[in-house]
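User: I'll paste a sequence; please echo it back and then give the predicted structure.

Assistant: Echoing your sequence first, then the prediction.
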Amino acid sequence: MADPVTVDIPHKLGREGARTRIAGGVGKLADLFPGGGQVEQRWDGDTLHFTVSAMGQSVASRLDVLDDKVHAEVHLPPMLALFASKVRDKVIEKTTKLLK
């Protein structure tokens, strides 16, 4: 299995504000992946666990909401690992937009 794609996105919303923004926009996270489709999600405290179906694959991801940043971790299956840099760029782009 390839190393997960990880990124930290800073914000100034506080933990609760960031969590609210992410909760309201989690459906848009399917756009992170080529052929993205269904998003399944669950919150565990301030951690959002979500899975996106993409190109017949399941992509498990996690967003840890902290006071001043969101730590994202995306576990790509081998077939999608070729897109790791593009996925990383999209995670930064989409999450930054959610947190503005």
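The chain has one domain: 5-98. The CA atoms of residues 21 and 97 lie 10 Å apart.
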